[in-house]
Design brief:
The chain is α/β, with parallel strands linked by helices. It contains 13 helices and nine strands. Helix 4 (95-116) crosses helix 6, helix 7 crosses helix 10 (260-276) and helix 8 packs across helix 10.
């Protein structure tokens, strides 16, 4: 569950206007090891030519309403649907419960991420599907997650899904088993937003930022990662001397290989280390713009050789407490 500090709600509709004025709408992806399944490729949005910022924001709101109306025809009466541009949220729960999840785990974290990292707001609707078993009638014999798995298959034909949830990039949709908590929702939200601001980021960094937000504190203009369950395995690897070199993690194209579970942990805590040093925002901006070798980007932003950075990172990991 994400640790949150409540702040006044900000309107994404207003953000769309402000983001457009500042620089135009830009095209904005854990099973306990890998529940964050990413499917398909992002589709870049193309703003209409010659529209004022206000008109483009109004057009986005209209597309969100159209998306909500079309989605509602595919759902049953147990679902509530809410529109908060650029988000369309639907869940088989009371509207008040859906609104609480939307505010706590979507709108506020998205606002903080936008201020911390992103150069604009999404130009197309992003759908958030929250599925729960809490409406099951007493005495019904069903395995946990039946609503989530059932609707994933009914709506998208997806059968092999992770326990917590996943993001489908082509339809810009998060499909979430919300009974597992809001942490994975913020994880998948990160994938949805980074896909349009930093298209096709390397797996190690895409998952580093997303997993950083699994357990976090949401502030007005930042999300601060907090220690979570991935720390224990990372510390064991450090103590056993089996942790792969940092340069390998960030330069080799094998994140989804045999070391995937440990790669998640190492990437998450390295992102948290850069945040601890006040360099994560700078690294994101530099890496997105230059897309150079990640090891060179780390050395550029942190001002040290990567082996020096790695030694300091490992020492810092030893100071953390779950």
């Amino acid at each position: 569950m994400t640790a949150m500090k409540i702040k006044p709600k900000k309107s994404w509709f207003l953000w769309a206007v402000v983001g457009l004025i500042a620089g135009g709408m830009l095209a904005w992806q854990t099973r306990r090891t890998v529940d964050a399944t990413v499917v398909d490729a992002p589709t870049a949005s193309i703003p209409a030519d010659n529209l004022s910022p206000e008109a483009e924001a109004a057009a986005l709101a209209e597309r969100c309403r159209e998306t909500a109306a079309a989605l509602q025809t595919r759902l049953d009466p147990t679902f509530s649907v809410l529109v908060e541009p650029p988000f369309v949220a639907a869940g088989n729960m009371r509207k008040a419960d859906l609104a609480a999840h939307l505010e706590q785990a979507v709108l506020r974290p998205a606002a903080a991420m936008r201020r911390a990292y992103f150069t604009g707001g999404p130009g197309e609707p992003i759908t958030v599907l929250l599925l729960t078993d809490r409406g099951v009638k007493p005495g019904e014999d069903r395995d946990p997650g039946y609503a989530y798995r059932g609707w994933a298959e009914k709506l998208f034909g997806d059968r092999d899904v992770g326990h917590h949830g996943y993001y489908k990039a082509a339809p810009r949709t998060m499909v979430m088993n919300i009974d597992t908590g809001d942490g994975t929702l913020v994880h998948e939200l990160t994938h949805a937003l980074i896909a349009e601001d930093f298209p096709h980021p390397p797996d190690w960094f895409n998952e580093a930022l997303a997993t950083l937000h699994e357990q976090c504190r949401v502030e007005e203009d930042d999300i601060i990662g907090l220690p979570n369950w991935r720390l224990a395995a990372l510390r064991e690897a450090v103590e056993a001397g089996t942790l792969r070199p940092l340069a390998d993690l960030v330069t080799k194209d094998d994140f989804r290989g045999p070391l995937e579970g440990m790669n998640y942990a190492q990437a998450r805590y390295f992102a948290m280390y850069m945040q601890h040093r006040g360099k994560l925002r700078d690294f994101y901006a530099h890496y997105r713009t230059h897309r150079e070798n990640a090891a060179a980007a780390i050395e550029h932003v942190l001002g040290e050789r990567i082996d020096v950075v790695e030694n300091a990172f490992i020492a810092w990991v030893g100071t953390l407490q779950e």
